[in-house]
Amino acid sequence: MPHKPVLLDEVLALLAPRPGEVVLDGTLGSGGHAREILNLIGESGRLIGLDRDPRSLERCQKIFGEDRRVSLHFENFVCAGKVLDDLNVPCVDAVILDVGFSSDQVEEAGRGFSFDREGPLDMRMDPRETQTAGDLINDLSQEELERIFLEYGGERFSRRFARAICEARKREAIRTTLQLAGILNAALPGAPRYATAERPGWARRHPATRVFQALRIAVNREIENLEQGLKAIFPRLRVGGRFGVISFHSLEDRIVKRIFRQWRDEAVVRWVTRKPVAPGRPEQIENPRSRSAKLRVVEKIV
């Protein structure tokens, strides 16, 4: 049975796709939202799917490859306008962006997203990008690392972790996920502090959690892409169309809130959700990763 994507029922209810409409899914992932949207837009509808992770496209090709209603593109949603131009699609009826990262990415050790699986410090969603997490860890100054950990991860031990990394890389380059996780764990007094099978109650969060999050955001320029993408896609949404964004990080949610509010103040959209929609308790229990998810939706009126 396919994994149910985050806030699926809420996305379908609030975007309200109808038969015959054209929907842009700018972050296909494993195709969970797209699959259910197709059921609602029917045989006369069209779904345009983008993802900058080629493995996501491979998974979705297997799911949708024979469906004439679907076109899949290896592209960042920042470039959605170019994709629509190439398809001769002037506008779309609805847009969904899920700007988190998927469990498939975490579980693939060779991608370097997980601190409890041995792999290279990569973290690139798009392999065409040249800069990896290892490059940041080994090349940035202590001050730059501290800023990234604090700004993108909210890490209260950012200075201590940055200093420990800089000391460790003097001895040898830091190349693997477990190598970095070990440095971070050892930097805190009383390590190990995180839960294991032998110590299930020691802590709720591994010391590397927020640092890995911050590195992923920095490597993939997620904050910059989100702001640029929202502004690039909005002109291609038809009047009456709805724009939904699922975010998992407070920085991302603040960007979405600020831009949506700006559009509302300019009287070009109306709120569909005045406050962000969060997963209910049953979904949080079923999928703990969903706990930080927030969905915001607006409707274009001009």
Provide the structure class. alpha/beta
The percent of residues in helical segments reads: 40-55%
Query: How confident overall, as mean pLDDT?
Result: 92
Q: What do we call the CATH topology of the largest domain? A: Rossmann fold
- Proportion in β-strands: 5-15%
- Please give the order of strands in the largest beta sheet: 3-2-1-4-5-7-6
SSE run:
HEHEHEHEHHHHHHHEHEHE
- Looking at CATH, the homologous superfamily of the largest domain is Vaccinia Virus protein VP39
Distance between the termini: 41 Å
How would you describe the oligomerization state of the chains in this entry? single chain
Largest sheet: 7 strands, mixed
Overall CATH class of the largest domain: Alpha Beta
Number-wise, the strands total 7
How many structural domains does the protein architecture include?
A: 2
Q: Would you identify the regions where 5 or more consecutive residues have pLDDT less than 50? A: none
What is the CA-atom radius of gyration, in angstroms? 20 Å
Number of helices: 13
CATH architectural grouping of the largest domain: 3-Layer(aba) Sandwich
Helices and strands, with pairings:
Layout: H1 8-15, E1 22-25, H2 32-41, E2 46-51, H3 54-64, E3 70-74, H4 80-86, E4 92-98, H5 103-107, H6 133-139, H7 142-153, H8 158-171, H9 177-186, H10 209-219, H11 222-233, E5 237-247, H12 250-265, E6 269-271, H13 281-286, E7 294-300
Parallel strand pairs: 1-2, 1-4, 2-3, 4-5
Antiparallel strand pairs: 5-7, 6-7
Helix pairs in contact: 7-8, 7-10, 11-12
